[in-house]
Amino acid sequence: MAVAPKRARKRGRNAQRRPAPGFMDDVLAMAGSLADSRKDHAAAQLETLAASLRQFGGSLPSLPLIGSYAGAAAEGLDDLSGYVQDNDLAGMIADARELARRYPLAAFGSSVVAGLVIAQFLQARGSSVLEARRSSLRVSAEDGDAA
Question: 23: part of which helix (H) or strand (E)?
C-alpha cells in the first residue's frame, strides 16, 4: 500500500519537470522568428551558389552534358531560393512533412545522406580544432623549454 503514494509522488515530480504547454509554443515561435530573419540571407546564398554553378557549367564547353546538369541544378537552386523567400518556417516544415508522407523512402535516403554530410563536417571541424589545440600546446611547450 505504501507503493501507491510513492508513485503518486514520482508523477508529481515529473509533472513539475515538464514545461508549461505554452513554453514549447514560445520556443517554436522564437525559432521561427529567428529563421524568418535569416531566410533572406539563406536565399541570397542559394542564389550565389546557383550563379557559381552556371559559371562552372559555362566554363566547360567541351563537356555539354555536365554544363546542362549544372544549369539544371542552378535553376533548381533559384527555385529553392524563391521558395525560401516566399514561405515562412511553419510552411516549410508543413511542406517537408507532406513530402515525407508522399515519398517516405526518398525522405529516409535524404536524411541518411544529410546525416553523413553533417557527420563529415563535424568530424573535419573537430579534427581541425583538435589540431589547432595541439599546435598551441606545442608552441607553449617550446616556449617553456626555451626559458
Answer: helix 21-58
Percentages (nearest 5) of helix, strand, coil residues in the chain: 90, 0, 10
Three-point CA angle 145, 146, 147, nearest 5°: 90
- What tens digit of pLDDT does each residue of 63-99 get? 989 989 999 999 999 999 999 899 888 888 899 999 9
Is the model's pTM score more than 0.70? no
Enter the C-alpha cell of residue 94.
508543413
Q: What angle do CA 58, 61, 65 make, to 5 degrees?
A: 90
Residue with the larger pLDDT of the pair 82 and 124: 82
